[in-house]
Design goal:
The complex is a heterodimer.
Chain A: E1 2-4, H1 12-21, E2 25-26, H2 34-43, H3 50-64, E3 69-73, H4 84-95, E4 100-104, H5 111-125, H6 129-156, H7 165-179, H8 183-198, E5 209-215, H9 217-221, H10 229-235, E6 238-242, H11 255-258, H12 262-266, H13 279-291, E7 296-302, H14 306-322, E8 326-331, H15 337-365
Parallel strand pairs in A: 1-2, 1-3, 3-4, 5-6, 5-7, 7-8
Chain B: E1 3-6, H1 12-25, E2 29-32, H2 38-47, H3 54-66, E3 72-74, E4 77-80, H4 94-97, H5 99-106, E5 113-114, E6 117-119, H6 126-138, H7 142-164, H8 169-178, E7 193-198, H9 200-203, H10 212-218, E8 222-225, H11 231-236, H12 248-262, E9 268-274, H13 278-293, E10 298-303, H14 309-329
Parallel strand pairs in B: 1-2, 1-3, 3-5, 4-6, 7-8, 7-9, 9-10
The chains are: A alpha/beta, B alpha/beta.
Chain lengths: 366, 330
């Protein structure tokens, strides 16, 4: 069976391995391009959010490439993302594409359905339970290793002396991870990838600005959707920390995970959780970033994203109370790279000035 | 004795009789903002976070107009009104969930906001404890609150019964609360029937939909809405869908739409949707596809702060002409 899945950041490397090793043929989704978006915009409802449109375009592209089944995730709402697969199925049927979207709903809500789908995938691929668990384990390690390497690259990029070194090293590292097939090989590729990054000529005397990136999961994770914002900021000399990583649930070295209950941080501002998507997280994470001495926060959200609009309405008070500037970028099909860049440059200038002024005040006090 | 301000929008159209009865039974005065006007909309547009949809902006406008007229603003946090949906997790649009906080942060000088959490999927006793909580905030005894709650529930049942007889909520409220005489329907026997589905605050607010229902009434068309159907009829439609939506009002609109599509005596469906409404981007396309499959005429009217009457009128007239033509042909 030819299986495909949504493109989200670098996770496709691990998911490709997963599908291939389950005994299926993998149609690797192409990185979302102008064409993907155009296709998506043509068929998706006008006010669907940008992830819906990009996924619509991706599904049409993989259907052209011969995919028969697309695996994705469901959800219990109230964010629209949980309903995507139903609408995508409707639309694909209307267009007359012979491809089926199968969604995994949260296992806690419907365990039976979850197992049934897993079992179906395993059986059609011809794997035993033990092999299947082994494959899942390797995939998970791969996801973690990819996140490790990417995370480190965002720390090193602002220090690089020659622009582009870090991104090139990151690509090499990811390629090595792509080739790795066993737990040992993954561990080795991970170490090699990190070493590549460490060996980049860099200037450690710099004291880069620190910006936290929060917002809706898809536009935060998919560089093609957010115009490579982390690379852009890195090359402006800014260290970025992203609030969402696919492997974040299990790690405890990210700031967001250090503090435990993110909802309790947001409670003084929004006394209800969850409100779907990452709406409440955005508020709580802004508080956390402020407490950890970050210079600013960039909120990324698709145009008309409901939970993030609520968060945006509340963030000005958080920003005032904690003294942390917040820049909200709503992304839609009209957003251009130059527009994002200009706004980010202005924001970074503002943060730089703030920092200088603060230092001046401190000197005066001393 | 306090003045409780209730905004004349969002959940007002379905739950006003309940809360009016409740507050008045406790001896409070209920202040309702005037029906939506240009001024209210402008007030709302000024105050609200700029990416919000028009109903949320209008809600802010209504609250702004109530600020100096009331001692409390009644803005409950609507979380759920029943256990429904594939995981029993049906709720409201995230903007409803965060509404009391948005209001509080937008209007720092507002009178105390009654933001009781309404989450009825918890169980049968939940409504009573909500009423007790609201009563506590207003300084009423538990005994009084319970009595008022019972009285209000009774009025709500009468209200629902009137809706099921085919009355529009504003008319049903007049009959129930002001003892107005029911107006006989003007529709002609054998005339066109159209189902209007959408959110109560989009259908029944003549300002935001520029008098859509009046236009239809003038054409002597019998209008049905999803609120005239009982929950039992609506929920039957849930089985038709691969998965229920997550939002109460959206589910009602979808189920209502699906129900009316199957009825031979309904000539067409009109879906009223608000510009940039998140859930509606799904609802609208789903209904459009289903209507197309069932060969039922379907019109989607999108409304925003710039909607002009003539634009909507033109589209309605064209739609009605098309329906008449269709009917004559068969």
């Amino acid at each position: 069976m030819k299986i495909s899945f949504p493109h989200m950041g670098y996770s496709y490397i691990a998911l490709k391995w997963l599908v291939e090793n389950m005994g299926h043929e993998c149609i690797v989704p192409p990185e979302p391009s102008k064409r993907t978006l155009d296709l998506g915009v043509r068929y998706a409802p006008e006010f669907a959010c940008i992830p819906f449109k990009i996924l619509m375009g991706t599904y049409l592209e993989v259907a052209e490439m011969g995919a028969e089944v697309i695996l994705t995730s469901g959800g219990r709402g109230p964010c629209r993302a949980g309903y995507y697969w139903v609408m995508h199925n409707y639309l694909l049927q209307e267009i007359g594409k012979d491809v089926r979207v199968i969604a995994f709903e949260p296992p806690l809500d419907n365990l039976k359905d979850f197992w049934k789908k897993l079992r179906w995938i395993r059986k059609t691929g011809g794997l035993s339970v033990k092999e299947f668990i082994g494959v899942l384990k390797v995939t998970w390690e791969k996801i973690k290793a990819i996140d490790d390497v990417e995370m480190r690259s965002h720390e090193i990029r602002p220090l690089e002396i020659y622009r582009g070194d870090t991104t090139r090293a990151l690509w090499k590292g990811l390629e090595m991870l792509d080739q790795a097939n066993t737990l040992d090989e993954i561990e080795e590729a991970r170490r090699e990838g990190l070493k590549l990054l460490e060996n980049i000529p860099r200037d450690d005397t710099r004291d880069p600005l620190k910006i936290g990136i929060i917002g809706e999961i898809y536009v935060v994770l998919e560089p093609a959707a957010n115009h490579y914002i982390q690379i852009m900021l890195g090359e402006m000399g800014v260290q970025t920390d992203r609030s969402i990583y696919l492997s974040a649930y299990t790690r405890n070295n990210t700031i967001v995970n250090l503090e435990g209950d993110i909802f309790s941080k947001a409670r003084p501002y929004l006394n209800e959780a969850p409100i779907g998507g990452h709406g409440v997280n955005s508020i709580g994470e802004t508080v956390l970033y402020a407490q950890h001495g970050f210079d600013g926060v960039v909120q990324l959200a698709p145009f008309a994203c409901i939970p993030e609009i609520v968060a945006k309405g509340i963030l000005p008070s958080v920003s005032r109370d904690y003294g942390i500037p917040v820049l909200t970028l709503f992304i839609d099909e009209q957003t251009g790279k130059a527009g994002v860049q200009t706004r980010l440059e202005a924001f970074v200038d503002l943060l730089q000035r703030r920092r200088e002024q603060k230092a001046k005040m401190e000197r005066l006090v001393v | 004795m306090a003045r409780v301000g209730i905004p004349h929008t969002l959940a007002y159209f379905l739950y006003y009789p309940f809360w009016k009865t409740f507050f008045e039974a406790l001896g409070h005065e209920v202040v309702v903002s005037s029906p939506t006007t240009r001024e209210i909309l402008d007030l709302g547009v000024e105050e609200t976070v700029n990416d919000a949809c028009i109903p949320i902006k209008i809600y802010h406008g209504h609250v702004a107009s109530l600020l100096d007229k009331s001692d409390f603003i009644f803005c409950p946090r609507l979380v759920s009104v029943r256990r429904h949906g594939d995981f029993g997790s049906e709720t409201f649009c995230p903007k409803f969930l965060g509404l009391p906080d948005l209001i509080r942060l937008t209007f720092p000088k507002a009178p105390p906001i009654i933001d009781t959490r309404i989450d009825l999927k918890q169980g049968k006793k939940e409504l009573e404890s909500i009423c007790l909580e609201v009563g506590d905030k207003l300084g009423n005894s538990h005994q009084d609150s319970l009595t008022a709650c019972r009285k209000a529930s009774q009025v709500h049942r009468q209200f629902l019964a009137l809706l099921e007889q085919g009355k529009m909520p504003p008319e049903a409220m007049e009959i129930l609360l002001n003892q107005a005489q029911p107006v006989p329907s003007q529709s002609l026997p054998g005339g066109l029937s159209i189902a209007v589905v959408g959110y109560p605050y989009a259908i029944y607010d003549p300002y935001i939909n520029v008098g859509l229902l009046n236009m239809l009434a003038k054409e002597k068309i019998k209008v049905y809405t999803q609120d005239m159907l009982s929950d039992k009829i609506l929920n039957r439609e849930a089985r038709e869908l691969p998965k229920s939506m997550f939002w109460y009002f959206s589910n009602r609109a979808v189920y209502g739409g699906l129900h009316f599509m199957k009825k031979a005596d309904i000539d067409g469906i009109i879906h009223v949707t608000a510009f940039a409404c998140g859930p509606d981007s799904m609802v609208d396309r789903l209904l459009e596809i289903e209507a197309h499959r069932r060969n039922k005429p379907y019109l989607s009217i999108s409304i925003d702060e710039h909607t002009g009457e003539s634009g909507v009128r033109t589209r309605i007239e064209a739609f009605v002409d098309m329906l008449r033509y269709r009917r004559d042909k068969t």
